[in-house]
Amino acid sequence: MWKSLVAAIALLAVGGSAFAASAVNKDAETRTLVVTEGGGKTELALAAGETAEFCPNGCFVTMPNGDLEALTGSETIEISDGVARIK
Amino acid sequence: MPSVSRQTIMLFRLLRFVLVLAIVASAQLSLGAVAQRLDQAPSGLIADQQKILQDLTAKSDNFEKKIQEDGEDDASLVDIRLQLEEMSRGALNSALAFRPRLTEINARLEQLGAPPAEGQPPEPDIVTSERQALASEKAEINAVIAAAQNLSIGISGLIDKIANMRSELFRNLLTKRYVLSDALSPEVISDANDEYAGLYKAVSSWLTFAFKFKFQAVLAATLTALSLAAVLFVGGRRLFGRVFEADPSVEDPSYLSRLSVAFWSTLLPTLAVGVFLVSTVFFFNYYNVLRGDIGVFLNALAAVVAVVFCVNRMTNAALEPRLPNWRLIPVETGPARWLVRLTTAMAVVIGINYFLSVVNDTVGSPLSVTIARSFVATIIVGVILILMGLLKPFRAADGTWRPWPAWLRYTAVALGLSTIAVALLGYIGLAIFVSRQVVVTGTVLVTAYIGFLSARAVSEEGSFAKTSIGRWLSAHSSYEESALDQLGLVVSVAINLMIVLVFLPLILLMWGFQPGDIEAWGYKLATGLTIGSVTISVTGILTGIVVFIIGYFLTRWFQGWLDGSVMARGKVDPGVRNSIRLVVGYIGVALAALVGVSAAGIDLSNLALVAGALSLGIGFGLQNVVSNFVSGLILLAERPFKVGDWIIAGQVSGTVKKISVRATEIETFQRQSVILPNSDLINGPVGNWTHRNKLGRIEIQIGVAYGSDARRVHEILLDIARNHPLVLKNPEPFVLFAAFADSSLNFEVRVFLADVSNGILVQNDIRFAILDAFKAEGIEIPFPQRDIHMRSTAPLAKWPTDDDQVEAEFAEREHARAKAAVPQPMIGRRKTRRPDPA
């Protein structure tokens, strides 16, 4: 019984990765987001059609068009035609 | 000792930590607060957030300075870190406040479209100006968010810096070497005197102040605290008195009762004292009785009293110097008394040293006093440790005293010697750290260990029923022994859980972790712990589980209500009732699981990914299970049979007892339960005697001898069939003249019954009646009989006389046949064949 409980919790934990924000690039070319998280800036390059999970605990993101936005870590960013929309 | 100062505050902090855990579930709501700010006028929004950010920036600058100043104080560093984390969240929130406005602006800009390129007709001025206004507002907002971002980066840098400083501090504490000759000079005595005078002055001035101006408040605070503790202690004694008081009249208490007495008699009084101390400090604060440094002194004093009391209780409980029967460790009475004294003395020394260190810090006495005091304390602790190790606590059968087991003895002596050696070498920080850990961590660990042992003893078979709670339960409730046993298991798990929850934070606190650390861990654990790209959120998972459990019980309740109240009174057919109940149950559980999963914050699309990967394997592996499951659903919907029906499926004939999702339980008339997989019932033919109604036909064969009056027989049989009370008049009973058989004229009585399950009874009755009627009428029921007619034939041929000649002829014939059977080419082939190379 404990084993199955542990397995269930592990599965839940794996499924729980929905807590992070995710970004989808729907364009045909690579788009780059600049993510500021915990004191460091990282560039998140998204190839065409790629989806990435990032920023689980809130961060700042510079969009491809230069806009700066704050994320709580539960949003989905959709990039199409070089414009990012937060959902 | 900066790393462990302000230990009493940690009790409050601990409470706060628990509160944080409880509140974190509503943490998401705080995001809602951000959303509310959005209704403000956009221009006001920018100004507001700018103001907030400016405040935060100023605060963080202050903290940066404070970090430099308070670099030596671990507790204040932790405090600053907590506030910085809060500020970081604040900066993010203030940036988040622009989200709706930004979305609006972007949408409007999109509506306006790009400015016309050269050569295109110019657009109206109003459009141009609006676009410009929007762009400039966007630029402004971007600037504010950039400021928030910079602030957040700065704060993160500060938090990292604090982490570095703290590890540096701890290293310093353990490795810093003091010059003892300076500290142990005669000047120290005068310094100590000065310090004592300072303390005396502070305390006495406070006492005069308190009694002159705040006498009532002091009285009220003390009384409230006392009454709280008394309620806890007396109430606890009332409730658990029998559990934790050693009864001197018991000759040979069980190991479990000794353990539980030791554990509870340590925990409950310590808790009572702790509550008294904490509430005293709290109420003194509340009534503003404390002034200046007195609060700090009082906190330290409370911590010392609590620790000394706990150590004393624990050793007393484990060693019971007065009641040898109740001793956990079988040492002799004299050594037991000494052990209690020595441990208490050690706790007192450590406690006094700690209290004086607080006084030193607040009064600001010279370093030499601190070193000298710590030196003396560690030496005393070392000596006590060695004494304890050298004590001979056991007595052999011949009356000689025996020492501790070697490992324990050597550990204690080595610990004592190394403490003394380290202190003599000048590593006072390390020495005091070690000795404090020996006392406090040792006590906590031993108590926790006793708790674990008692949990294990409770879970042993049959032992819970023998405890006082178990006896009380079995006297006052209908629990049976096995139920009590299971209850014992639950109790043992609960005790284990409680020990981990209570003692783990305590030990962490003792080992120099600050309450803030634990608070931060708790917060992280509750809101989401990130490992790689996976975030584990305990609250999320717990919420999901709780929601599922609630959903499950709601379903069960609804099921029961629907079945028991609605459908039972609606006179719904039991089979339909069963189907509806089962389907409602499955739907409810599935819904509860879905709601639970989404409440846990799990994106089902992630699970879909896993399910997709597994589905092939599941498809093969669980083929049968799935097919049975689907068949079960079809059975419930189509209802070819229901619970209580008499069915025949393949070789099995019996009553349907239960239709569940994988299999159906059928009870044969021999009372054997047969579990048939549902797919068998769907794929194979199933006969149901009681599908629409219970009407059924039974047949009884009977043969009468040739020569009987067949018409009379027919009449008698029909009469018997018609006169049986259970036989239906319509359809009419029918007697079939079935056959001219070998030895009899065969008849078949066919009757219809309203309830075919009575068939056996009716068959019996009719057979008996037939037998009686035939006897009365003189009609014979024949045995199978066969007439054999013998025909006479010619005499048999004579036996040949010359046997030898016949035999010789036969042998010759056989030989010739064998020769002809050997095929010629075989011989040639065998010649060419070579032997095997092997």
From TrEMBL, chain A:
Residues 1-20 form the signal peptide. Keywords: Signal. This is Uncharacterized protein. It comes from Mesorhizobium tianshanense.
From TrEMBL, chain B:
It is a multi-pass membrane protein. Residues 813-838 are annotated as: Disordered. Pfam families: MS_channel_2nd, MS_channel_3rd. One of its GO terms (molecular function) is mechanosensitive monoatomic ion channel activity. One of its GO terms (cellular component) is plasma membrane. Residues 828-838 have a biased composition (Basic residues). Residues 698-781 form the Mechanosensitive ion channel MscS C-terminal domain. The keyword Transmembrane helix applies. Residues 624-691 form the Mechanosensitive ion channel MscS domain. InterPro entries: LSM_dom_sf, MS_channel_C, MscS-like_channel, MscS_beta-dom_sf, MscS_channel_2nd, MscS_channel_C_sf, MscS_channel_CS, MscS_channel_TM-2. It is found in: Cell membrane. Its main location: membrane. The chain crosses the membrane at residues 217-240, 261-284, 296-319, 339-359, 371-391, 412-433, 439-458, 487-511, 531-558, 579-602, 608-636. Keywords: Cell membrane, Coiled coil, Membrane, Transmembrane, Transmembrane helix. Residues 46-73 form a coiled coil. Belongs to the MscS (TC 1.A.23) family. This is Small-conductance mechanosensitive channel.
